[in-house]
Design brief:
Rossmann fold; alpha/beta; disordered C terminus; single chain; 5-stranded mixed beta sheet
């Protein structure tokens, strides 16, 4: 079976290179929606989405008429004091500079701890896999956020890469081939 991990389309905040997280529930920008309409995406039997507007709208554009199953655990990370700000607005802040110097590995000040996000995403994926296995679905799509994709690929992508090596652009996707090993609980 194949699970397509599709990053939502571009938002205004993405265009402005902002940390658009869990507190900022913005829709796609006009250019972001148009860009999605110009691409070809895989056909799927089932669509799962983050509860955030940008993901639901992406799912509606890519898979019109398909029922969208919202997975609350796939919501975006709360970026704390970095939320909805960009490099220019943050570069003077010591916490931001320290975070950058640490390679973006630390938690977001005042935000959601990275390990909590990872656990939440894995719980959501377990829910998806239960539905996929119980309905014997062969191809499904997850319309989610970049960080969600990075957490899933880091856990299940096969080759061991750095978290940020799995980063993809808006409207791009990666695929996971799921085997019986995953169904058996060996991860």
């Amino acid at each position: 079976m194949t699970i397509y991990l599709i990053r939502h389309g571009m938002t205004k905040g993405n265009e402005e290179k902002r940390y658009v997280g869990g507190r900022t529930d913005e829709d796609l920008s006009p250019a972001g929606a148009e860009s999605l309409r110009k691409k070809i995406y895989p056909k799927v039997q089932q669509v799962f989405s983050s509860p955030m507007k940008r993901c639901i709208r992406t799912a509606e554009i890519l898979y019109p008429g398909k029922e969208i199953f919202v997975v609350e655990e796939f919501r975006e990370t709360d970026f704390g004091s970095f939320e909805n700000k960009n490099y220019e607005e943050l570069k003077g802040e010591k916490e931001y500079r320290d975070w950058l110097l640490a390679g973006g590995r630390g938690d977001f000040p005042g935000g959601e701890p990275r390990e909590e996000v990872r656990k939440r995403v894995m719980q959501g994926f377990d829910k998806v896999m239960f539905k996929v296995w119980s309905q014997n679905l062969k191809e499904s799509a997850l319309i989610v956020h970049g960080g969600t994709i990075m957490h899933l690929m880091e856990a299940y992508g096969g080759e061991k890469k750095d978290f940020y090596e799995y980063q993809i652009g808006n409207g791009e996707y990666l695929s996971l081939s799921i085997t019986e090993d995953l169904r058996g609980g060996r991860r």
